[in-house]
Amino acid sequence: MQWRKDHGRPEGFDTLRRTKPIIAVGEDEPLGGERMKAAYYHGADGLGGVHSSHPHHSSPSETWAHLFNPPPPGTLLTSTAASATHTDPPAAKPHSLFTPSSSPSHLEILRILDTEPADTITLIAIGPLTTLATAAAHAPQTFLRAKRVLVMGGAVDVPGNMTPVGEFNTIADAVAAARLYALTSPDPASTMPPFGEKVKLPDYPSVDELGERRLRVLKFPLDLTTKHTLRRDEVHAKLKPLAAEGSPLAEWVLAFVDATFTKVETLHEGHEIGGEATSVDLHDPVCVWYAVAGGGQSGAGWRFVEREDLRIETIGQWTRGMCVVDRRDRKRAKEGEAEVDGDMGEWLSRRKGNRVDRCVGTPGERVLAGVLLETIFGNR
User: Fold this and answer.
1) For 21-41, how does the pLDDT look when each residue is reduced to its tens digit (9 = 90+)?
2) pLDDT score of 196
3) Which of 281, 357, 375, 260 is nearest to 15 (CA)?
4) Fewer CB within 10 Å, N side or C side of the chain?
5) More confident residue, 79 or 62
6) Taking 60 as the threshold, does the pLDDT of residue 296 lie above it?
7) What CA–CA distance (Å, rounded) separates 38 from 46?
């Protein structure tokens, strides 16, 4: 932003400058299974090794890691005494671009949902669902105050990207995904994982205790996101002139995006090494695009399969993380009918199963690349 200001360009990032985001640390281990990493694709730092190749654009961890440490326990001046004397306990030094929280992220989420009006907070999940599932388990009624949860994850009618059926975010904590999706069900107990939790969380309350409100989950799976791509020639056309002028943001982004293009060429068939047509899939940006572009409005181009009974396999040797939907031509239970004979898993019941909205269409598969580049780097 300072470089843009010095060069007479619009600073951009208006929301960031107007409202500093709260940053909190999430869970360190999945609820079920072993901890998974994607360093083979994204690099050890998650950005293609840019922290090593361009250290001058990175902040050493010692300058920020301590900001998330919990405050020391009270000694002579306890929190109660501090409140009584109107004295604030020690706080982390304010940061210019974000507000660090010493609370675990699941508690920070619950705090925001509890203090803001119901149906005003949208949660966006572009990684494993461990933190959201933890928040939902600790205070289900508070969590259900969320307007909706947008989830990038899963593969329904296409292959996975970690196993033949498993997408990374889902397989990395299939138990968490199953637990979160269960909150969309009229009867959450009907789709809860049977076992396999490494970290034991409380069960959800009974249907009567939970009330009528349920979670609205909007799912953005690989079926949709892999169709939205960003090409090397698009990135170079936009960023190389800016980097030549000295833009630190353009130089930094070029470094890790080019590393990703190279990785794609080594992993997948059909890409020419160094070719300008090499592309990366815009998985996470599709999910965020829907949130910030007023998605869901009539005529906006967004299309969904609504209230789909989509469940997550949590214990299969080869199928963990698989998104399971019923493709049979069986008749569903009639209105008022409790169950259907021979319905193993209660897939045909109107009172069981999940209710997930799955995105199947956007304003345009080639639209997002331009929107992304213009939003971040401006139209000059």
Assistant:
1) 999 999 989 998 888 888 778
2) 64
3) 375
4) C
5) 62
6) no
7) 8
